[in-house]
Write a structure and sequence with these properties.
two-stranded antiparallel sheet, single chain, globular, Membrane associated serine protease, rhomboid family, protease, 2 strands, about 190 residues, serine-type endopeptidase activity, hydrolase, mainly alpha
């Protein structure tokens, strides 16, 4: 379930929404990185800056989900989405998957706004990625039939390692990770109870 064996063409066909998110993140990364366009201005316009959100720039609650600070940041979050997103896109369908991904990313950014200083700036999809982990945890608790015992143990182990590593890495939005995870779990609880 968490091992990718598809060809690129198969991946695109089976998981069109994840493919779109990956391409969108790449386009945003290029727009915020290439030297021959006003990349610094674009990055500044899309980053989550708590002060600007409070002053009315509400798009900054959503746009940071797709903006990354460097190639390594983009690759790590994209790799996580490629590994852990497809099973949920298949289980939930495209519409619900997009809803969960955006809702948990937005919840992580709102928590960051509420709990971090006004000067705090943040980017990255890790709040939404942790939201997927939270949703998987809800599956392991409330819909055991959707995941094998082995896959449930794998996702729980990775989620625990992810949470622990959150506190040992520099430049990590701890608030987004924790609240993305909580939002994913709560969203999973609601969706899976229907």
């Amino acid at each position: 379930m968490f091992v990718r064996t598809e060809s690129l063409r198969e991946f695109i066909r089976f998981y069109p929404l994840i493919t779109f998110i990956l391409l969108f993140q790449l386009v945003i990364f290029l727009a915020t990185s290439l030297p021959f366009i006003p990349s610094r201005e674009i990055f500044s316009l899309l980053a989550g800056v708590n002060l600007y959100i409070v002053e009315g720039e509400l798009w900054r609650i959503v746009t940071p989900i797709f903006v990354h600070a460097g190639l390594a940041h983009l690759l790590f979050n994209s790799f996580s989405l490629v590994l852990f997103g497809p099973a949920l896109e298949r289980i939930l369908g495209k519409g619900k998957f997009l809803f969960v991904y955006l809702l948990t990313g937005i919840a992580a950014n709102i928590a960051t706004l509420m709990l971090e200083p006004l000067t705090y700036t943040h980017v990255g999809s890790s709040g939404a990625i942790f939201g997927l982990f939270g949703f998987y945890i809800a599956i392991t608790m409330f819909r055991k039939d959707l995941l094998s015992k082995e896959n449930s143990q794998t996702i729980l182990t990775i989620a625990v390692i992810g949470v622990v590593m959150t506190f040992f890495q520099a430049n990590i939005n701890i608030t987004a990770h924790i609240f993305g995870l909580i939002a994913g779990f709560l969203t999973g609880r609601v969706i899976l109870s229907k």
